[in-house]
Design a protein that fits this description.
single chain
Amino acid sequence: MNNSSQEMVKKILLFHPYLKKFSVQGKLNDYINKFPNFNEVYASIRKENEKDDTSEVIAKTLLFGIENDLLDEYDLDELLFLILEDSLFNSYLFNLNFNTTNLIDKQSIEELLSSWNIPTQHKILNNINSETTKDFVICGYRIAEDAKGLDSLRILLLDSKTRNTYFKNEDSKEIAFPTILEIDFRRKLLHVRLKDVDNLIGESEKVSTMSGRIESTLNFLSSFKPAVQYTEITNFKSSLYLLEEHLLSEKRNVAYKQLEEFENEIEDFTAKVCNKFNPPTDHEIPPREYINTGVLSVIATTLEKNVLGDVIGIRFRNSQSEERKYAEITIKDTGNKCISTSNLYWLNLSVLQSTKSVEFLKIVPQLESGAAIVNLEFSYDTANIRLLQRTTYDGSEGIRPTQEKYDEVIDFIKPFLN
């Protein structure tokens, strides 16, 4: 392998966390429409390089494609853009306030891209370690349009310098660190999409912490003219409560229906408890509610799984009268069963419905493109959406996140962003 070839492989391997065989082959077949014998070449190179990991074999296979005119460098940049779109699903959302009145034709969109100094073509590999004083370099974009004009603009950023990372049981490796900045005109949202930063070595806080990265990305965005106006989604906790109610209230009604059969017994028992202990009458949750939820927790253990709902994790707080003091309640099921199968949920339901605020929610929405496992959290003063990387759920294929699923998840939660 000559120096030029070695340099190309080295550049490709800077994206090694994203180089998965199924993903590369799928993008080549479905989008690039080139290199149809990728799988055969990969198998041949694998035989000759048995000690190489998958990303190294993929890089050498792509080099074969370049050297044999099955791909060109633009194809490689397009391939990387597609793969990164299907990989960056830890997203921080902000409300977007941007005038879209004039963005109704191609010329207006092109003028906007030009004013923001966004290149007309993807340029990723040649932008690695660019000579710039800024934290990021813009490497390309993707436009989604509808009949009314610009729908969404996804801008790919690379850190202006490569970063060192460590992985368990491996030596440190150099990587290119990507971020997708999505200006979502249709939904009036700004998305900052990036990977975790836990394994970055020896970097400043603005590089190696999520809060620092978000701030750096937003500072970079502030240089855009015309300016992009945005605000944090500060009421996301109440949005998560509304979403939880949407997903589980109808399911709970099945249990409530059975609870009605014990109404007289519960009323009599509540009266006896109150007469015996004389609890305070000004408590925000009356004794009857506590007793109801205790019975509901028993009923829930008898219900069929398919009527229990799609919330598999929740965290909320029971605020106390003294400032900054609270009890935190976390309910998760490691088997990905709905939290309504847990008596903890029913026993704390009165607290949840009193506070009407949720810190964290884990859901499994059933989308047109298949199921997704999603973490929703109020983090760094705004909404955080994370699609989890899982290949199966409940024995079914198709849980792996994609750009299509990400879009559907955002559409799914958007009505609750009040």
